[in-house]
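When time allows, look over one protein, given below as sequence and tokens. The question is which stretches look regular and which look disordered:
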Amino acid sequence: MSNRTEIVLDIETQNTFQDVGAYKASLLKISLVGVYFYETDTWEAFLEPDLPKLWPRLERSSRIIGYNLFGFDYPCMQTYYTGNIMSLPTIDIMLEIEKRIGFRVKLDDVAHATLGVGKSGHGLQAVEFWKNGEIEKLKDYCLQDVRVTRDVYEKALTEKTVYYFDRMGQKQHVSLPIAPADTEEAPKINLSLGL
């Protein structure tokens, strides 16, 4: 058990942008949300029907950590959440890197350069796992993304820098001076009630 109430998450979807005919994340349906809870040091997966159990835990967290949360995960999640998910305390590692280098970098390129290990596949595989009813494979896939996101976040906390491979395959570094979350700043109300 830890006194840290941060949460790392990643989502997978049941369908693709091609399926919905637009590049709009809010049109996609969630298959699973993979989560790491610092407080309990546990890895959990929430299928679409289980999402109401996740919302209070997100609301009580001091910080939600992810990769492309604002561009993908949160717009998908917002269609299920009655509050404003964008208002939760959040660190979007992809946006933090983009602010410093001026362009977006894939999680896999950051994870490989920073940790020496990356994602276990690509997002289309996750959709196939869902469509084929391979829920355990879907959980494993998603939780691997959560694991590398958490480990990149930990590197930023401890070393104040992370690495990525650029388009030429060269390893580059980027300063990422993220401070630990202030547990006193965790929301004190139930935001999912729409208050």
Summary: The radius of gyration is 16 Å.
